[in-house]
């Protein structure tokens, strides 16, 4: 499960990693803990670390500019907050609004999270053909939005004060 945000040396969000990977980066002195889970610590014979929630790399990593967030099934479920686009219940599958057999592709604007029952009911049809209505319109998240959604952050108010706002 990805739960630790990784920042570049310039405080630019890079990605999310598992807790295990974050601890390894800190132990190897490749990263420092910027924010920890309150009251939680990792202890071993020679180690006593706060459980990292946000880490920052010690050296700057050059990253090619990314205009678009890459599409993924996990990304669609996270974007839609694991809620079915047709009924609002818990979603476990990804549905293509325009089915692949009708020329629809794996894109942000053509996929929505769906519960297995509604995905099966809609089958190989468009929502109009199946008599189903989308509760919300699918959208394409920006790369930074995708990172925040993956972390479960809904707005600026929950981000720490030390994290600079983008210009």
Q: What are the main properties of this structure?
A:
two-stranded antiparallel ribbon, 167 residues, four-stranded mixed beta sheet, single chain
Brief rundown of the structure:
The chain has 167 residues and is an alpha+beta fold.
What does this structure look like?
- By secondary structure, the chain is of the alpha+beta class.
- The chain is built from five helices and six strands, in the order ββαββαββααα.
- It has a four-stranded mixed sheet with strand order 2-1-4-3, with helices on both faces.
- The longest helix has 9 residues, at 19-27.
- The model has no long low-confidence stretch (mean pLDDT 86).
Radius of gyration: 19 Å
Overall number of strands? 6
- Which sheet architecture does the biggest sheet show? 4 strands, mixed
Shape: elongated
Classify the beta-strand content into a percent band: 25-35%
Helix proportion range:
10-25%
- Summarize model confidence as the mean pLDDT: 86
Structural class assignment:
alpha+beta
Give the secondary structure arrangement, pairings included.
Layout: E1 2-7, E2 13-18, H1 19-27, E3 31-43, E4 48-57, H2 73-79, E5 93-96, E6 111-114, H3 116-122, H4 127-130, H5 143-151
Parallel strand pairs: 1-4
Antiparallel strand pairs: 1-2, 3-4, 5-6
């Amino acid at each position: 499960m990805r739960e630790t945000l990784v920042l570049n040396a310039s405080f630019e969000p890079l990605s999310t990693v598992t807790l295990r990977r974050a601890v390894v980066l800190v132990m190897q002195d490749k990263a420092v803990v910027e924010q920890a889970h309150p009251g939680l610590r990792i202890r071993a014979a020679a180690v006593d670390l706060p459980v990292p929630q946000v880490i920052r790399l010690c050296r700057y990593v050059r990253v090619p500019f990314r205009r678009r967030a890459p599409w993924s099934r996990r990304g669609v479920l996270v974007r839609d907050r694991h809620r079915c686009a047709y009924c609002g219940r818990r979603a476990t599958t990804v549905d293509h609004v325009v089915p692949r057999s009708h020329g629809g592709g794996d894109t942000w604007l053509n996929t929505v999270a769906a519960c297995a029952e509604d995905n099966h009911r809609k089958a190989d049809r468009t929502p109009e053909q199946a008599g189903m209505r989308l509760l919300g319109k699918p959208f394409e998240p920006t790369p930074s939005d995708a990172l925040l959604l993956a972390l479960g952050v809904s707005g600026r108010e929950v981000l720490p004060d030390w994290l600079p706002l983008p210009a």
